[in-house]
Design a protein that fits this description.
The chain is α/β, with parallel strands linked by helices. It is built from eleven helices and ten strands. Strands 1-2-3-5-7-10 form a six-stranded mixed sheet, with helices on both faces. It has a four-stranded mixed sheet with strand order 4-6-8-9. The mean pLDDT is 96.
């Protein structure tokens, strides 16, 4: 099988690169399947505590779904198209959103369609000044299908999201920052260093606590404030008996660096 996703390990960070530059890193079924398998492996790996996603080449993070491929699924009717295309894409973005280790998107170029939906789903994102975003699905007669009709309104607000969902117009990285889609915009040659700097700041802390915070935020956003507070309480209770919470408290009291064990 081709390496649709290139894996590299830098200390405790996995760098995953979408590797179809000749297709603007379009999200083929094979690429999505491979990415999901890699995420399964990373989640079980004690050596990796964060993930950075980026795209191969100088032009694209990901230009979205492989249109020629999914158009064949559409020809087979609604049931086949939903199973092969929609469920696969939604499972990918949901997996990223709920992933127990922080995922940072380093958006190096075009982030259209599914590429934009990945940016919406991951925990954090940094955009190059060369990045361009769009929700162009309306141009081919479909709504976004990897979560874009749900996550962008939650990030940007209903009216601002609908402007891009209904026009298909592209928008600049600074606009993506204003909409809450990315955390920062940096010069292109500083993109990867900024992504690693962000993961380094996260990895100073307990990986168990990080996972509990991600869970509380992800689950809480989909409920009422009362349900969210209960989720927050549950995640706190899970931390109380751990080594890492005792170590963090002792280190703070003793004014020394903490030695986290991830348990």
């Amino acid at each position: 099988m081709p390496d649709y996703v290139i894996q590299e390990k830098h200390d405790r960070v996995a760098l995953l690169t979408f590797n179809r530059p000749e297709k603007l890193n379009a999200l083929s079924y094979g690429l999505i399947n491979q990415l999901m398998d890699i995420l399964d492996w990373i989640e079980d790996s004690s050596d990796i505590q964060a993930v950075i996603l980026t795209g191969a080449g100088d032009r694209a993070f990901s230009a979205g779904a492989d249109i020629r491929e999914f158009s064949e699924s559409v020809k087979q009717g609604p049931d086949a198209a939903v199973k092969a295309f929609v469920r696969r894409g939604q499972a990918m973005t949901a997996r990223m959103e709920a992933f127990s280790k922080p995922i940072v998107a380093a958006v190096n170029g075009l982030a259209y369609g599914g590429g934009c939906e990945i940016t919406e789903a991951v925990h954090l994102a940094i955009a190059s000044e060369n990045a361009v975003f769009a929700k162009p699905e309306i141009n081919i007669g479909i709504p976004p299908t990897f979560g874009g009709t749900q996550r962008l309104p939650r990030l940007a607000g209903r009216k601002r999201a609908l402007e891009y969902l209904l026009t298909g117009d592209s928008f600049a990285p600074q606009r993506a920052y204003e909409l809450g889609l990315v955390n920062r915009v940096v010069p292109h040659d500083q993109l990867m260093s900024a992504a690693y700097e962000l993961t380094d700041r996260i990895l100073r802390h307990s990986p168990v606590t990080t996972a509990r915070i991600i869970t509380a935020v992800t689950r809480g956003l989909n409920g009422t404030i009362s349900e969210g507070l209960e989720i927050e309480s549950e995640q706190f209770a899970r931390m109380v008996p751990t080594h890492d919470v005792r170590e963090a408290l002792d280190a703070w009291i003793d004014r020394r660096p903490a030695n986290y064990l991830g348990r």
